[in-house]
Amino acid sequence: MPESGAHRAPFCNIGLDSGDASSDGARSLTGKRRLGDRVVRALARTTWRWAPPGTQRSRALPAHELRRALGVVALVFAVKLGLGGIWFDLEGIVANGFAFGFEVGHIAGNIAAGHGFTVSPDSEVYLPTAWVSPLYPLMLAGIFKLFGAYSLAAAKAMLVANCLFQAASAGLLYLLGVRFGGRSVGLVAACIFLVNPNGWQFLAWAWPSQLFAFLLLLHFYSLLFPIYRSAGLVGATFALALMADGAAIAVAPVTLAHLYFGNSANPANPASAADANRVRRRSLAAALICFAIVVAPWTIRNAQQFGSINPLRGNVGVNLWVGNYPGANDESFHGLAPSPWHDAAEGKKFVALGERGYDRMARDRALAEIVARPGRFIVNSLTRFSGFWLGEWWTGYQHIAWFYSLGLIALTALALRGAIRARKLGTGALLAAVLLFGGPYYLTVHGHGRYRVPIEPLMCLLAALKPSEAERESSLGDVE
Question: Which listed residue, of 25, 206, 274, 329, carries a Cα 20 to 30 Å from 423's Cα?
Fold first, then answer.
């Protein structure tokens, strides 16, 4: 990306060559120059850099920073596992269907029992499903095979796995902070992540949130490198995030924009800048090839089972319906009443139509409701938007403990503040990803903190950022 001051040169050069002009002309040119300087200063104050400068992204991190990142991983893992083992009632989690993943746990149990990636409305019927993305159910099935399905030992193993994912996220977060603003930023980001209440709330639950958060953060770490050498990694990490949760598709515009408009020149070979378009095309092709390789098994399996090429999960229409059916407001957009997992009549329709047919029916019902009552849909979507960032205020914060809701609000405020204050450090892509990520939830279900967990490591990074004195001076130094 160009430096933040690169576009200022035309303003700085206006009227500098006065030649033999009269004193009036000189005063006029001086006035123009002062006006130009004021314009440049205004631009310097408002410019929002998309990503850190290419030279900052291409340099290798010292070995001692990598060792510190490993130390962060070890510390966070020890704290999370140590306190989590005391704090969480694992026997209660075993007895709680939602805490053991509900749909995810159901599918994992079928896999472990040898029935494949299926749902079973009764013990005699097993229907192929793409209700959730495959990575986490497969991992949970492995745990069930080793420790017993829905057992206390399996719950302990899930806590260990989730602690590992969070610890790995903290290590990556430290390295991201070092690249953005130095060691202090990395440490502050990791500390915010460690104490973030929402990160503790679902730590022992068998949901994909922690795995998804780690893979999404790994993807954004790959975006920091120049695209001429990291495009394949970008494509592969995005595909892995998508295989953890189809909600990753919401940040695809950020990934594509970065691939095409990101730094394509090799700093070691300045002549390659003239071939930027060719490098972009090759990088985009490499990213798409690696993406396709990762998602191919799941996509081929879905094509065989459902007759459609779809690398995403198969309940988009259902989510749109449960969030917008006529009674959605009455249950605070939790979407349980009309779901085939909770309503016997809907469950029978699901069995009769199959997953793909039922999802299509749910989508048609949802679109008909939205078209019939567009004003209600807009108001409800704005309500869910606010709930995603501020918690479920419309319930009086009764659904989630006030401590967690306060954490949601505080992290939102800190992340927005950091993104604005450090905008010339390169926070544009991060802020765009954070805002876009909630898109599917703005349109469908409620503002439950669980849905925000995957993007919160990036929010912790934004919260830790601040412009250094040197950065503030350099942003205006070329116009003094």
Answer: 274
**389-392: long-range contacts, CB 8 A cutoff, minimum separation 24:** 389/438, 389/447, 390/447, 391/447, 391/449, 392/332, 392/446, 392/447, 392/448
Angle between helices 209-222 and 227-244 (to 10 degrees): 170
Q: How many CB atoms lie within 10 A of CB 377?
A: 18
In which element (H, E) is residue 437 found?
A: helix 428-437
Q: Which of 255, 207, 238, 1 is nearest to 98 (CA)?
A: 207
Higher pLDDT, 232 or 272: 232
Domain boundaries, the chain: 1-47, 66-89+151-477
**Start-end of H helices in 88-151:** 90-94, 103-112, 135-147
What pLDDT does 377 receive?
Answer: 92
pTM value? 0.84
Residue at 108: amino acid letter? A
- Residue 445's contacts (CB-CB under 8 Å, 6 or more residues apart) are 319, 322, 323, 333, 334, 335, 384, 451
Task: For CA atoms 66, 67, 71, 77, give the dihedral sign.
Answer: positive
* pLDDT tens for each residue of 187-233: 999 999 999 998 998 898 888 999 999 999 999 999 888 777 788 99
Q: What is the pLDDT of residues 16-56, one digit of tens each?
A: 233 444 445 445 545 545 554 554 444 445 566 777 765 55
Asked whether the predicted pLDDT for residue 58 surpasses 70, the reply is no
Burial 248-285 (b: 16+ CB within 10 A, else e): bbbbeebbeebbeebbbbbeeeeeeeeeeeebbeebbe
